[in-house]
Design goal:
- The chain is mainly α.
- It is built from eight helices and seven strands.
- The strands form three sheets. A three-stranded antiparallel sheet has the order 5-6-7, with no helix packed on it.
- A hairpin with a 2-residue loop joins strand 5 and strand 6.
- The longest helix has about 40 residues.
């Protein structure tokens, strides 16, 4: 056999031995580590007793595959505690908000409790990988729901309530305004109540003689004040940019993590479970 085959095998063995030094700790013990060390012992010899190029190529591929498998397992073993801690933190932070009782938080907390005491170093490679991915997915979904999705979906309600209080501070104790502070869904029946209250108070203020002016700090002149009104439109701030091509907007699931984007007749719909937005 040519020297290049022996050289290729020697290089593969060396890379395997380097990986083996990284999994000495007993937390990496298991079939994957045993298979790697077994292959090293098999091929790290003066005479590997192989006689064809196919045998050498197969040996190199075997070593490469075992190194890759060991690296993946090592990464997941190292990541599991961090991923578990991140999920715990996401749940704790969510429970400090008005979104504490949404299904996603309950599901994340349940999964955390089921896995916090798991002896993860004894899981096989497939189960370990799935566990880490699930921990990360539930962490991302929980945080995304609480910090981005639901605040965005309830923004119309929040802004309407704030606009009402800006017109009449006494409205802070109004039943609908208080309900707005606890809203976790795009409740259009509540929106209708808030719109009615806002419109009534706005008209009442207009009837006093167009009070929507203020003095310019520099000139002292009275200038018109812009009245925000985007909250009168459902989900006015829920949008994405994309390439327009023949009337289609390139909206993807990755634009809104945790949401599913689907093209419907004339619109795009964005949904997560029973929550949806159409634009």
């Amino acid at each position: 056999m040519g020297s290049k085959y022996y050289q290729n095998l020697a290089e593969a063995v060396e890379l395997a031995k380097q990986e083996a030094t990284l999994v000495v700790d007993e937390k990496y013990n298991g079939k994957t580590k045993d298979a790697l060390n077994g292959a090293i012992a098999k091929y790290d010899v003066a005479d590997p007793k192989m006689h064809t190029d196919k045998e050498f190529d197969a040996a190199v591929k075997e070593l490469e595959a075992l190194v890759k498998q060991s690296k993946e397992r090592r990464a997941n073993i190292d990541k599991y505690p961090t991923s578990l801690e991140s999920l715990q933190k996401a749940v704790e932070e969510a429970k400090e908000t008005k979104y504490a009782n949404i299904p996603e938080v309950a599901d994340a907390e349940k999964y955390y409790n089921e896995n916090k005491d798991v002896d993860y170093v004894k899981l096989d490679d497939a189960d370990l990988k799935k566990a880490v991915e699930t921990l990360d997915n539930k962490t991302n979904l929980t945080s995304n729901m609480v910090k981005t999705c639901l605040p965005l979906v309830t923004k119309q309600i929040t802004d309407l309530a704030a606009a009402i209080v800006a017109l009449d501070e006494a409205s802070v104790n109004d039943e609908a305004v208080l309900a707005a502070g606890n809203a976790t869904t795009d409740d259009q029946s509540l929106v209708a109540k808030l719109k009615y209250i806002y419109t009534s108070k706005l008209y009442k203020k207009i009837a006093t003689g167009n009070p929507f002016k203020e003095k310019d700090a520099d000139t002292g002149d009275e200038v018109d004040v812009t009245i925000p009104a985007s909250f009168l439109i459902q989900n006015a701030n829920f949008y994405s940019t994309g390439t327009v091509n023949n009337g289609d907007v390139a909206a993807k699931d990755t634009d809104f993590p945790g949401w599913t984007i689907e093209k419907t007749t004339g619109n795009f719909s964005c949904s997560l479970g029973n929550r949806s937005v159409v634009w």
